[in-house]
C-alpha cells in the first residue's frame, strides 16, 4: 500500500516526550538523535495547527487537512509522482530478496504479476517494509541470527539479531461507558447518509467522516514513574474513543450512547527485562510457504513484568477518577461490567480488574524495534548503526519503525516521520560528499549528476 500504515491508521499524531529521543541518543552514542536536534525534522514535516501536548490533557492532534487524512503518500510522494523524472513507483510488486555481491547490496529481486524481475541499485538499497516486513525480507536475504539461517539453510550474508527487540504498547479499551442520551456521541452507521458523503467530498471539517478519530487524550505519570522521579516523562496515555464495534463481541451492534477509554503503557517495563521477538517458522518455510502470515512467529511478551500490570491498573483507577468528575457525571456516565469478569469476581475488585486486563488486553499496533538501532558493531543488540546502515554491510540501510531502539511513550506515527526526515538528510549528505569527490576528481562534467532524491 502506498503510504504504508499511514494510509489506514487512526491518524493520531504525537511526537512523544523529549526524553524518549534523548534516550535514543544515549543508546546510539549519537547526539544527533537528541530531541533538540530532532525538533527540526518534526517541524519540517508539520504544518502545525495543534498544541503539541506531551503532558496532561489535550485535544488529539491528527495527520489531516480540511477534514481528510494526509498519509505520507499524500504528503510526500503524490505531489511529485508525475514530475520527478527519476522516480519510478512499481505497483503490484512483492520484493522477495535483497541481492548482494559479497557484503555489498547491489539490488533486489521482486515478483510482479507472477514474473520474477531484478532491479539494480546505483547508490544503495533502502529497506522500508515495516517492523514485520523488514525483518522477513532480511531473513530471506541471509541476514538473521545464526540459528535461524542454519535451520532454514538460507545462504548467510551476515549474522545479526534481526527480529529481536520487538516492542509495542500493551493496553486495553476500557468500557463500555454509557451516557444519558445518544446525542452526546455521533454514530457513524446511523448518520452515514448521502448528505454526509457530499460534505466529506467537499472537505467539510464538520462532516461525520472527518471526525471519527479519538477526540481527547491525556498523558499521565503513573505512581511507579513518580517513585522513580520521572515526573516529566509520562508512561500512560488515555484517550476517549467511540467504537463502531464491540471489542469483546465484534459482531454485535453497539448502542449509540456508549463509549470506551483506550489506554496503554507508554514505557513498558518488559523492555528492561526481556523484549519480544518475531521470527521465521522454519518448518513452514521449508514446506514452501511464502506469505508472511504463514511464516511469522510473533511473541510480544506483554505483561511479564508485575510493574506493567500495576501501571495498567493505575491507568484504570485514573480513568475512573476522571469519569467520576462533575463534567462526566452531569451526562450520567456509568461503567457497564465486563460479563465474563463480573461472573467470576466482585465488580471493580482488584481481581476483577486483573481479569479485565487479561481478557481484553491488546497491543496498539505501534510495532517497532525489530531491526534495532545501536552504536555500531560493538553493540551486540543492534542491527543498524546510528545512520541506519546495516552493520557489517555496504550500501544498504533500514528506514522505518523497526530501527527504533526503545519505543516512545506515545503513538509512533510522528516519530517514524521524523526519523525518516532525518534519514533522508543523512543519505543526501553521504551522496553529496561522494558527488563532490567525483567532481573534484573528474571535473564537473555534465554526465555526473546528484542522486535522484535531490531536487
Textual characterization of the structure:
Residues 437-455 have low confidence and may be disordered. The two termini are 25 Å apart. The chain has 14 helices and 19 strands. The chain is an alpha+beta fold. The strands form 6 sheets. Strands 1, 11, 12, 13, 14, 17 and 18 form a 7-stranded antiparallel sheet that branches. Helix 5 (146-152) links the parallel strand 8 and strand 9.
Largest sheet report: 7 strands, antiparallel
* First-residue to last-residue Cα separation: 25 Å
Strand content: 15-25%
- Tally of strands: 19
State the helix count.
Answer: 14
Which regions are unreliable across 5 or more consecutive residues at pLDDT < 50? 437-455
- Class from secondary-structure proportions: alpha+beta
Any idea what the shape is? globular
Helical amount: 25-40%
Question: Using only CA atoms, what is the Rg?
Answer: 24 Å
* Mean pLDDT across every amino acid position: 85
Amino acid at each position: 500500500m502506498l503510504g504504508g500504515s499511514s494510509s489506514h491508521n487512526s491518524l493520531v499524531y504525537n511526537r512523544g516526550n523529549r526524553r524518549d529521543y534523548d534516550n535514543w541518543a544515549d543508546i546510539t552514542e549519537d547526539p544527533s538523535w537528541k530531541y533538540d536536534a530532532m525538533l527540526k525534522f518534526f517541524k519540517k514535516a508539520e504544518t502545525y495547527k495543534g498544541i503539541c501536548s506531551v503532558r496532561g490533557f489535550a485535544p488529539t492532534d491528527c495527520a489531516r487537512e480540511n477534514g481528510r487524512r494526509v498519509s505520507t503518500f499524500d504528503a510526500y510522494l503524490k505531489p511529485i509522482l508525475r514530475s520527478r523524472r527519476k522516480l519510478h513507483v512499481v505497483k503490484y510488486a512483492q520484493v522477495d530478496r535483497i541481492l548482494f555481491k559479497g557484503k555489498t547490496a547491489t539490488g533486489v529481486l521482486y515478483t510482479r504479476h507472477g514474473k520474477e524481475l531484478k532491479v539494480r541499485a546505483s547508490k544503495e538499497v533502502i529497506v522500508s517494509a515495516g517492523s514485520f516486513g523488514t525483518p522477513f525480507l532480511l531473513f530471506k536475504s541471509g541476514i538473521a541470527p545464526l540459528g535461524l539461517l542454519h535451520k532454514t539453510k538460507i545462504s548467510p550474508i551476515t549474522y545479526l539479531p534481526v527480529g529481536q527487540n520487538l516492542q509495542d504498547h500493551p493496553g486495553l479499551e476500557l468500557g463500555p461507558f454509557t451516557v444519558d442520551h445518544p446525542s452526546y456521541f455521533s454514530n457513524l452507521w446511523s448518520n452515514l447518509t448521502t448528505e454526509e458523503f457530499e460534505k466529506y467530498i467537499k472537505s467539510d471539517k464538520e462532516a461525520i467522516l472527518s471526525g471519527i478519530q479519538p477526540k481527547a487524550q491525556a498523558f499521565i505519570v503513573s505512581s511507579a514513574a513518580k517513585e522513580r522521579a520521572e515526573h516529566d516523562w509520562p508512561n500512560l496515555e488515555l484517550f476517549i474513543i467511540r467504537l463502531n464495534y464491540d471489542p469483546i463481541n465484534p459482531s454485535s451492534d453497539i448502542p449509540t450512547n456508549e463509549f470506551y477509554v483506550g489506554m496503554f503503557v507508554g514505557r513498558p517495563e518488559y523492555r528492561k527485562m526481556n523484549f519480544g521477538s518475531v521470527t521465521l517458522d522454519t518448518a513452514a518455510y521449508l514446506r514452501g510457504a511464502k506469505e508472511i502470515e504463514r511464516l511469522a512467529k510473533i511473541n510480544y511478551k506483554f505483561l511479564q513484568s508485575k510493574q506493567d500490570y500495576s501501571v495498567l491498573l493505575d491507568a484504570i483507577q485514573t480513568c475512573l477518577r476522571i469519569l467520576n468528575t462533575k463534567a462526566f457525571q452531569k451526562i450520567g456516565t456509568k461503567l457497564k461490567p465486563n460479563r465474563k469478569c463480573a461472573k467470576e469476581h466482585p465488580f471493580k475488585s482488584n481481581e476483577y480488574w486483573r481479569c479485565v486486563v487479561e481478557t481484553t488486553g491488546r497491543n496498539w499496533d505501534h510495532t517497532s524495534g525489530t531491526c534495532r538501532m545501536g552504536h555500531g558493531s560493538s553493540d551486540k543488540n543492534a542491527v543498524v548503526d546510528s545512520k541506519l546502515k546495516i552493520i557489517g554491510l555496504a550500501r544498504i540501510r533500514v528506514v522505518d519503525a523497526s530501527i527504533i531502539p526503545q519505543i516512545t511513550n506515545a503513538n509512533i506515527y510522528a516519530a517514524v516521520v521524523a526519523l525518516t526526515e532525518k534519514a533522508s538528510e543523512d543519505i543526501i549528505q553521504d551522496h553529496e560528499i561522494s558527488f563532490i569527490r567525483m567532481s573534484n576528481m573528474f571535473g564537473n562534467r555534465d554526465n555526473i549528476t546528484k542522486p535522484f532524491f535531490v531536487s
